[in-house]
């Protein structure tokens, strides 16, 4: 049986909704859908680009705590309420994933808060 370790970012919604920012199971790290809302201050910047930058920073922190990095990400799913806002995020995604791009899917979907413009979910595998 594989032990599981949960990683929390301190966001107030984690205990309210009953989720962890990430779960480490064996060599896999599953990072929950992450928006650009700062988990400590609660501030959500305007626009998909600024929110993407924040979401990637939050994800990067969770991956680091799990002993991984963006180079270990094997799967990413992007959720945006308007697919036309995705292109401004591309340079930041290229910077995060670099020479190790994961398999990816972008889904146009409503998010919990209409002010949220992007949510990013990743799965990583430590070799």
UniProtKB/TrEMBL annotation:
It holds the Pfam family Ribonuc_L-PSP. It comes from the Bacteria. PANTHER family: BLR7761 PROTEIN, YJGH FAMILY PROTEIN. This is RidA family protein. It comes from Glacieibacterium frigidum.
